[in-house]
Amino acid sequence: MVVLVCAWITAAAGAVAAMDASRIVTAEAQWIAKGGYTLVVTPSRLDEESVTLDAARCDRLSTITGVAGSFAVSATGSTLAPTSAPGAATTLFAVTPGIYDFFGMPPPQESTEIIAPARAAERPGLVDGEQTWLVSSIADDWSDTSRFPARIRLLDSPILGEDISGSYLAPEGALTEATACYVATDAAHLAAVIDLLPGALASPTSPAVAEPRVPTGSYGVLGFSAAYDQRVSRWAWAGAAAVLLLLWALLQRLRRQRLAVYATFGAGPRSRLVMQVSEWSTLSLPGCALGTFLAITGSVAAGADPATVVLQAPVHALAGWLAATTGVIALGLWPIGTLLDNLKDRT
Question: Could you report how far apart the first and last alpha carbons of the chain are, in Å?
């Protein structure tokens, strides 16, 4: 009975802590996947078409410490469509080759490759790796068109902004001017990179402005780190320890006559302590191990992040057991009278 009680209490504490932590970790991971640590740099004077960024300088930002990748984007004023679906023409943007490292894609094997974001490829039904003929026109002027073969590279990423996620992207190593620069960093270097970018990409006529690709991440009204550090469930182990200790104290209270017998026949405080701690360990350890297993399997089955669950559940089980064991030792040191003492108390 004690084993099962320990198992369920440990399982409840581990599952609560794991599920709560998993929700925060998953929310942060989704925010990062959408471009949480991606910055978009643009000229501050967008009202003037002549104001652009240096595309080559943008591409070289990836060599700076703290910058995981960078690439430049420039509108071409052209549209592109597969010959098999001429009605699916969409805007063509030129990008620097840094886009391959930015998204972890291998460099192209062919000289002509068109990157098709998932939204742009969906309508004409383009397939990754296919060779197809494309038709290019200037601003939808079909009197001035050109046809060329190209290999299609699909790119499915929410990091791309709304302005280019539905357009075709043409890598160009000779691109000199850009209307935007995408820069990827991480949490440790985010502030430093934000301070660096305006000066690194400023032009003689206009400074550059660096803004996050997506709004600042938060979990409720707190940031992810603060929400993780301030979650109430981080004390689940303490609640489990308190319940376990309370139940053990109640059990020892019911067994006070047996403990009095041990004291009557000469069992000293040290001997009684060893007996109680040994009994506690024999009953609680298997229960806590079973509870940890239940917490992990139950949380993962409920959709929690496995890596977070495997970390949280055992930690709370161990911390709760150690805290409860400390209380058990303190209870074992409590003075116990003999049978004669108990009879005197009753009279």
Answer: 35
